[in-house]
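## tool: complex_structure
## caller: assistant
## args:
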Amino acid sequence: MDREIKITVCCGTTCHLMGSSEILIYKDEIETKYNHQVTIYGSPCLGYCKEYAAANAPYALIEDHLICQANKDKIIDYLNKLLDVRE
Amino acid sequence: MFQINNAILLRRDLKVRIADILLNDKSLTELNRLPVMMTPKGSESTIRCCIYKERAVTRSAALACFGVGFEDDDELKSIKEFAEERLESPKLGQDVLTVLNEGCSACSKNSYFITNACRGCVARPCMMNCPAKAISIKNGRAEIDPDLCKNCGKCLDVCPYHAITYVPVPCQEACPVDAISKDENGIAKIDFNKCILCGKCMNACPFGAIFEKSHMPFVINQLKQKKRVVAMIAPAISGQFTVDYGKIITGILALGFTQVAEVAYGAIETGKRETAEWLEAIEERDPALTSSCCPAYVNYIKKHLPEKTNLVSSTLSPMKYTSQEIKKNDPEAITVFIGPCIAKKSEAISDDNTDFVLSFEELGAMLAAKDIQLMGLESSVPSLTGDSPARNFAVTQGVSKAIQLNIPEHASFKPEVINGIDKKSVFKIKAFMDGKLPTNFMEVMACEGGCIAGPNSITNPKVGVAFHKKSL
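## result:
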């Protein structure tokens, strides 16, 4: 194992309303897919909804990279790029 | 079962923006800017053909949020003018749903299409078996005449190449009671003599063209006028915000509600009285009794099986017992039911004690607009509380289980549970009504999974159920 990748999914009120809990359903699936090299955390409001508008919620952070309108597929796409995984 | 999609998210985004304008005392002129703000110049239209169409749909949707249906729209009036008019005198009608004609994609009324896989075979079973004589062979391939086709589906069954495909009209497919038809332009139309307000079409429409007429602006108005507004929370709320039950209550109080009462309080009464009613009914008749707490089911019986109304429990719904209690203590209080349900609006309009209905989606929009973060709050207790069996009314089988607990040992309680009203389960309801099932009680929930998976729930039912169990 090279490094641990931390994914933070915002679970503030706005992000929750826009579907962040849908991402957390796949926590185990995504973590297992990458041999537990990644860990997904739910977090209290990260404040992006005020900075960039509610329409782009839910927000997720993969290390320092911000994902708007985050969903399972977008997270997996970015992780594949980051870890150079080809599907 | 309820599943999230992009059209639902657009609707929620709009509701957050409207809640923001109203709750944070912004000028109502902002409402007129919503269509452009949501689809600004130069932006790429995400779903529809162009940004202009998207703006037109946003306008209609915003009007629906003020209770103005598409049929009442006057294009010469601005959203602000409509809003001012309705805030002054809210019109709450039984026709809770509205089709935004601009948004409706007028899906083809014909559901069967011949694909390229057709080889124009010699046998031609499609042509031979079509009862409407709608199929002919042109250029070596079968073709369906859309004016003759009756959508029977025989051609699909008989094609040896599986070359015929079925493309449903999603709203019509979702409607359990065939209340949706199409006008001459193919635009969906809801027949409110048939519609039971289950709300399935609203989330099924891939173009987000079916909208619910909201009470949210009127509730916000009451809160801003500092009236004594009491929130009556449906038990399904425990699974909606993925935080502890008590924190949700604190959040609602922070919005300006003076009291939060659990509807489960009324559910205790409903459970007791329904049991007593059932014990009487089994002595008199078979089939004995069905539950009455699901308003979409009650609408179904009223509109489709009116001669069987006597078999539906006459016990009031938990909401009605709760609102009665609140108005008894404070006749001036404004009672607001907060739940996942659309049909509850039709029930509330006919109930003198319930003034408004908010959906979980709208509650979420108001919390988001006020930037109330539930996670960091302390817990509060509700002013009227229920117990575990009463809170379990929110999930399928909950009502039967609550009655089971109240029943004396000698009686044999044989419940049948209808978990979701759909095109198939309506036959089971009819069979029970005709005494063809070996059961003596029927619990009906219009939504699969129960209220927790209602049309306006905001959390995936899988997650919701887990949090709901914690609250019991």
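## assistant note: The interface with chain A takes residues 4, 9, 12-13, 16-17, 38, 241-242, 361, 364-365, 367-368, 371-376, 458-460, 462-463 of chain B (CB under 8 Å). The CA atoms of residues 123 and 160 of chain B lie 9 Å apart. Handing back to user.
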